[in-house]
Amino acid sequence: MKKRKILVMLVAMIAALWMTALAEGHLSGSLDGRTLYVSWRVPEGSYELTVSQNDWPICLRNVTGGEGNISLKVDDPAAAYSLRLRNEMGCWTAKVSGKPAATEAPTAIPTAEPTKDPTAAPTAEPTKVPTAAPTAEPTKAPTTAPTAEPTKAPTAAPTVKPTKVPTTKPTAKPTVRPTSAPTQSVSVSNREDLANQVLKLVNEERAKQGLGALRMDAELTRAACVRGGELLQKFSHTRPDGSRWSTVSASAFAENIARGQRTAEKVMAAWMSSSEGHRENILRPSYGSIGICVFNHNGVMYWVQLFGR
Using CA atoms, how far apart are residues 170 and 163, in angstroms rounded to an integer? Predict the structure, then answer.
């Protein structure tokens, strides 16, 4: 009985000491330009440190307790960053908000693309049609009409019909197509070296789970680059025309997208630590092929994976 009481007292003392350590521990971070500094003081032990940018994981690292610090390079000094340090005994969190200096990136993307197409289409076509029509009619067949009697009948028919048909049809069709076509597809240049690095890391993760390797598929890669161009207009699993991502190719069964990560290792760490199904797509046993598109737009990296049978 005495031994049991002593054991209970020891457990209670250890728990009290641990709770005191938890209360005294701290996790903090600060931004200096594109460098994020993270520091902590927590009880000894092994911990998992997660850094997220706008709630999207960009770094997952194992660190030791006590006093420690690390520095990370980030892409957006104006973003909000979340920090989490945890193990089976406790968890510390902190938030770091960037300075609102980088309004440049948002301005660059929306301004550049919408301005080009709208300006080109309205200016070119409205000018041509109005100029052609007014000039043709004032010269009118009235000049030919007074010369002879046959002119009256030809003047009425040719002038009314030819003018109306060319004016409505040519104007309507060219205006609609130039406006919608650019919205549907933006050509992107695939970084095949980074795409191959992603494929290698995907197959390493699958091998850890005893799963077969995925093979790179040309059709899925083509469709992934189409989706990459669409992400510049709408970063979503819904396409710019409102349809589902899966309509891009009959061969595609799942999609992973990401932006902002600078390396293949960082984007894979984000996907593998995500709770939104990205990890499940990478490790699904029934998949046997993959298409990967990676490109840089205005200094921001975009990543697309499409999975097939």
Answer: 11
pLDDT class for 51, splitting at 50, 70, 90? confident
Q: Please name every residue paired with 296 in a beta bridge, in sequence order, or none if there are none.
A: 301
Measured in whole angstroms, the distance separating CA 210 from the mean position of its chain's CA atoms is 30
Distance CA 179, CA 172 (A): 11
What does the chain come to in residues?
309
Range scoring the smallest mean pLDDT among 165-174, 189-198, 211-220, 288-297: 165-174
For residue 188 the two structure tokens come to: 């992107």
| Residues paired with residue 39 on neighbouring β-strands, in sequence order | 28, 69
Torsion (CA) 237, 241, 247, 248 in degrees, nearest 10: -80
What is residue 45's DSSP assignment?
A: E
DSSP summary character for residue 237? S
CA 292 – CA 306 distance, rounded (Å) = 7
Cα-Cα end-to-end distance for the chain: 64
Per-residue confidence (pLDDT) for residue 73, from 0 to 100: 79
- Contact predicate 82/49, CB 8 Å: no
